[in-house]
Write a structure and sequence with these properties.
Blueprint (H helix, E strand, L loop, with lengths): L1 H29 L4 H8 L2 H7 L5 H20 L6 H14 L24 H22 L1 H9 L3 E3 L4 E3 L2 H5 L2 H24 L14 H15 L11 H26 L19 H6 L13 H26 L1
Antiparallel strand pairs: 1-2
């Protein structure tokens, strides 16, 4: 039975990685620009780790990327929004939304698409209702009971800490306390959240299964190089569109911390517990694309060389972890 369970886990993980790769191909194909940036994020150690796991983060990582690609394509390349585009966005929201509801805020990326591409305000309204309605319907079917439990409870108990936690009503009446906990979390854990997003820690219970920090710095440099403007490259995003993307990402990050504050943080803690860097990984590609500008232009560096460097770093991390595990046998 144990062998069957292990085999089933391996097959499921392989299926998850295959699905992630398939959606990744569709994402790269649909993107109007920034293809190498998205590909670079998809081969980070944490991205590969999640793609090969049994976590629902596989679905979130893959489908947020595809949703973003469709929105950017419709906003900056396509002449009109077709019915199949609206259906694709609605299906993605319905599938991804129940996994972690806070990511539903990426529906705001649809507002990057000019109304004129829908034809008129009537078609825009119907399309918006279809996308948002699919998300709300999926949430009602899958997560309504969970949402009701957290919002209606007057008393909360954090099992892992064996202490009392915050209730939804308490947090709503203590906005200053909430902001203070958010600030402490970013101030004290900001660096570890970023390195964790790239893949510094790949084992929940084993600190040795990690990516060395020098590799994290190398991967960071590679991502920065990929996002810089190349000679003759056109920049599509205007400042107001960049600000809107930053706002959506900030809303999602705040919602993630609020959810962990509600479900995972005891009252004795001075910061939000349970927040992990990988939670922001689905938003990293679009955030990086907003950094491309006219003032900093790179020359003489082939994107393929940068991506090969990242792949070599992945191979090193895999061999290093494999060697560590073998030494324990």
């Amino acid at each position: 039975l144990a062998g069957m369970a292990v085999a089933e886990g391996i097959l499921t993980a392989r299926g998850g990685m295959t699905s992630h790769a398939a959606v990744g191909v569709l994402t790269i194909k649909r993107l109007p620009f920034g293809k190498n940036v998205f590909f670079g994020v998809s081969i980070l150690p944490m991205s590969l780790h999640l793609a090969a796991s049994l976590s629902y983060d596989v679905v979130i990582l893959a489908f947020t990327g595809y949703f973003t690609a469709v929105c950017l394509d419709l906003a900056y390349k396509a002449d009109t929004v077709k019915v199949k585009d609206v259906i694709a966005l609605a299906v993605v929201m319905a599938v991804m939304g129940p996994c972690k509801m806070v990511y539903g805020a990426i529906a705001g990326f649809c507002l990057l698409i000019p109304v004129k591409k829908f034809g008129n305000w009537g078609k825009w309204t119907v399309s918006a209702a279809a996308v948002l309605g699919s998300f709300l319907a999926a949430m009602a079917v899958v997560n309504l009971r969970t949402v009701a439990m957290y919002t209606q409870e007057s008393d909360s108990y954090v099992a892992w800490a064996e202490e009392a936690g915050y209730s939804f009503a308490e947090l709503l009446h203590q906005p200053v306390r909430v902001l203070q906990l958010f600030y402490n979390t970013v101030a004290w854990q900001g660096e570890s959240l970023y390195s964790g997003m790239l893949g510094e820690s790949l084992g929940n219970r084993d600190a040795v299964l990690n990516t060395p920090y020098v590799v994290i710095l190398l991967l960071t440099a590679c991502l920065v190089i990929l996002v810089l403007k190349k000679p003759g490259e056109e920049i599509f995003m205007k400042i107001k569109e960049r600000l809107w993307i930053w706002f959506i990402c900030l809303v999602i990050f705040a919602a993630l911390m609020f959810s962990m504050l509600l479900a995972w943080t005891p009252k004795s803690s001075n910061m939000v517990q349970g927040v992990q860097g990988r939670y922001m990984l689905p938003l990293l590609p679009v955030l990086l694309l907003t950094l491309k500008n006219q003032k900093v232009v790179r020359t003489g560096t082939d994107d393929r060389l940068v991506l090969y460097t990242m792949m070599a770093a992945d191979v090193y991390v895999i061999l290093r972890i494999f060697a560590v595990v073998c030494l324990r046998l």
